[in-house]
Automatic annotation (TrEMBL):
Top EC category: transferase
Family, similarity comment: Belongs to the class I-like SAM-binding methyltransferase superfamily. EFM4 family.
Pfam families: Methyltransf_31
Keyword terms of this UniProt record: Cytoplasm, Methyltransferase, S-adenosyl-L-methionine, Transferase, Transport
Keyword field contains S-adenosyl-L-methionine: yes
Name used for this protein in its record: Protein-lysine N-methyltransferase EFM4
């Protein structure tokens, strides 16, 4: 159980916050189409590290899905969709294999979905991106019947963990304890879930994701670490999990 791992509640754990956030970002984008909004964990270079990690694994044939002719990528809590846009662009330049990719982003905020679609249409019209409004914590959401090969999360579990409200559909469990079981439904055996978090240590993240699921640590991304008071740490961690 993960009762020993709890964050304080914050407005960043509410849908209202994210709706207002993406409304504002979309309005900024209308005024200036160079402004596609916040790139979370940019200071740690997390987005480019996640992308490079995946491209290297694909090119080295290390991903279990390497031989799949059609690889389905899902961004969980996609926000402005930037991770998917950049991933598609970098794959088109660096990927050496023959597989084709499908890029899907989901978010529970309708304003995020509208914003991501707007950016996709205006700036990336030559690639097919799909964005859909899905609450990852809705039990038996129809979307959970889909399966994906590579699942990405940059900051979404972090946001979910900032809400301590008990979920009625899950007998009062909170979001961060339900998340991994929900996401697991979107994976086949051999699918990979790559999560970047700034709120949890590696040990905590592993416990949250592997408790009550068939997910296991597959690999991780290394970030420069700092030492403070004899304790080693880094500002974010990214861990890839595989479904067994
Ligand atoms: C910190 S932002 C990160 C956004 C994006 N991944 C990025 O890196 O820019 C957290 C995102 O998670 C989304 N989110 C939070 N709870 C969610 C849930 N239950 N289902 C789907 N999306 C959720 C929010 O709407 C927001 O877009």
């Amino acid at each position: 159980m993960t009762e020993d791992i709890r964050l304080n509640s914050s407005k960043l754990g509410t849908q209202e916050y994210w709706n207002n956030f993406y409304k504002k970002e979309q309005s900024n984008f209308q005024d200036n189409d160079e402004d596609t909004g916040e790139c979370w964990f940019d200071d740690s270079d997390a987005e480019s590290k996640m992308i490079q990690f995946l491209i290297d694994k694909l090119n080295d044939g290390e991903l279990p899905v390497t031989e799949t002719p059609h690889i389905r990528m899902l961004d969980l809590g996609t926000g402005n969709g930037h991770l998917l846009f950049q991933l598609s662009q970098d794959l088109s330049e660096e990927y050496e294999g023959d597989s084709e990719f499908q890029f899907i982003g989901i978010d529970y905020s309708p304003d995020s979905v509208e914003f991501a679609k707007d950016i996709a249409g205006k700036k990336y019209g030559d690639v097919n991106f799909e964005f859909e409004q899905v609450d990852l914590l809705q039990k038996e959401a129809p979307f959970l019947k889909n399966k994906f090969d590579i699942l990405l999360d940059k900051g979404t579990l972090d946001a979910i963990a900032l809400n301590q409200d008990p979920l009625q559909e899950f007998d009062g469990e909170i979001g961060m304890d339900v998340y991994a079981r929900q996401v697991e439904q979107l994976m086949n055996k051999g699918s990979i879930l790559l999560i970047t978090s700034c709120n949890f240590t590696e040990t905590e993240l592993v416990k949250i994701i592997t408790t009550g699921t068939n997910l296991q640590v597959w690999d991780k991304i290394n970030y420069p670490s700092f030492q403070f008071g004899g304790v080693k740490g880094s500002t974010v961690c990214s861990i890839a999990f595989i479904k067994d």
